[in-house]
Amino acid sequence: MISMAKQNKTIAVAGSAFTEDVRTALAEEFDLILLPPDPRLPDAVSGHADLSVVILGDELLVREDYYNMTAREEIDRILMSAGLRISTVSKIAGKSYPLDCGLCAKAVYVAPAFTGPGRKPGSSADETAEKRRIVIFASKTATYPEVTGAAPEYSSSCKERLLHSHEGCLPEVIFVNQGYCACAAAACADGALITADRGIASAAFRAGIPCLTIRPGHILLPGYGDGDGGFIGGASGLCGDRLYFSGDPHSHPDGEAICDFCREHGTEVVPLTGGKLFDGGGIIFP
C-alpha cells in the first residue's frame, strides 16, 4: 500500500543504470519509479529509461514487447500516478543503432520569447504559459514514425493529438542526424537547450531556441569506448524550474558555463550527488 506522503510526491522515472547513490537521492525527494532493464537493448544501456519510453504531453509511448513482457507494473504505475494514457509501438528493439533508439526523441516546451520573429511582447504570464509550444527533436531515419507523426495512421492526426495534449501549444518536429536526441540534450525551464551535438545546436538556433554548445565527453557512460563519452541529457532531468544532475556539473570542463546558462534561463541547478556526471539514461518527470 502506498502511503499518502508518497502519493503526494512528484513522480521521477529513471532506469536501473543509475548508481545507487543517485537512486537514493531521487527517492528522498520524489516518488521514484525505477524502470527495469530491457534485455532487447544493448547491455550497457539496457537500463536507460530514455531508450524505453518517451512522454509527449499526456501520452506515454512504449514498445509493446517491453510493456507486455518486462515493465507492465512500473509503466502502469506511471500512467496511474501521472494521469497519462499509453500508446504502444509494435517495433522490436535491437542491440545496435538504429534499433536501440526509436523512442529517444527530445521534447521541449519553448516559451514565446524564443519563437522567433513576429513575437508580440508584453504578454501576461498566463498568456505566456498558454502560448508555449512543444518542439520535438528527432531523427528522420532512427526515431519511430509513431513518435514524430510520420506514420500513415498518425500523419493526419498527430498534430491534432498533440494539441489536445498541450492546449495552446503548437507542436513541431525538428529532424536532426542525431538518433539519441533525448540523451544528447538537456532543457532549461523555458526550453533553452544544452548539448554537445552541433547538429542539434544548429537546428535549435535556426528555430529561435537558445542553445549552449558544450564540449563532448567528460560524462561517464560505462561500456562505451573509454567510458567517458556520455551525454548531458542522459545525466540530467528537468522538473519545473529545477534541472537535476546525476553528479556535479562543475566536474565538466564547461560546468561554469552550464550553471550560468541555466541561471540566465530561470533554471536552478541541483546536483543529486558529487563527483563526475553520469549518463544513466536521463531522469523523466511526467
Question: Describe it for me?
Answer:
With 286 residues, this protein is of the alpha/beta class. Helix content is 27%, strand content 22%. It has helices at residues 4-7, 20-29, 64-69, 72-82, 125-131, 145-148, 152-155, 158-165, 181-184, 198-206, 255-264; strands at 11-15, 31-35, 53-56, 59-63, 85-89, 106-110, 133-139, 172-176, 185-187, 193-195, 211-213, 236-239, 242-245, 268-271. Strands 3-4-5 form a 3-stranded mixed beta sheet. A 3-stranded mixed beta sheet has the order 6-7-8. It has a 3-stranded mixed beta sheet with strand order 9-10-11, sandwiched between helices. The longest helix is centred in the first third of the chain and has 11 residues, at 72-82.
- Number of helical segments with 4 or more residues: 11
Strand order of the largest sheet: 3-4-5
Low-confidence parts lasting 5 or more residues at pLDDT below 50? 1-5, 116-128, 151-159, 163-168
Largest sheet: 3 strands, mixed
Helix share bin: 25-40%
Shape, principal axes of CA atoms: globular
Based on CA atoms alone, the radius of gyration comes out at: 18 Å
Beta-strand content: 15-25%
Rounded mean pLDDT is 88
| Total strand segments | 14
Distance between the termini: 22 Å
Secondary structural class: alpha/beta
> How would you spell out the order of helices and strands?
HEHEEEHHEEHEHHHEHEEHEEEHE
List the helices and strands and how they pair.
Elements: H1 4-7, E1 11-15, H2 20-29, E2 31-35, E3 53-56, E4 59-63, H3 64-69, H4 72-82, E5 85-89, E6 106-110, H5 125-131, E7 133-139, H6 145-148, H7 152-155, H8 158-165, E8 172-176, H9 181-184, E9 185-187, E10 193-195, H10 198-206, E11 211-213, E12 236-239, E13 242-245, H11 255-264, E14 268-271
Parallel strand pairs: 1-2, 4-5, 7-8, 10-11, 13-14
Antiparallel strand pairs: 3-4, 6-7, 9-10, 12-13
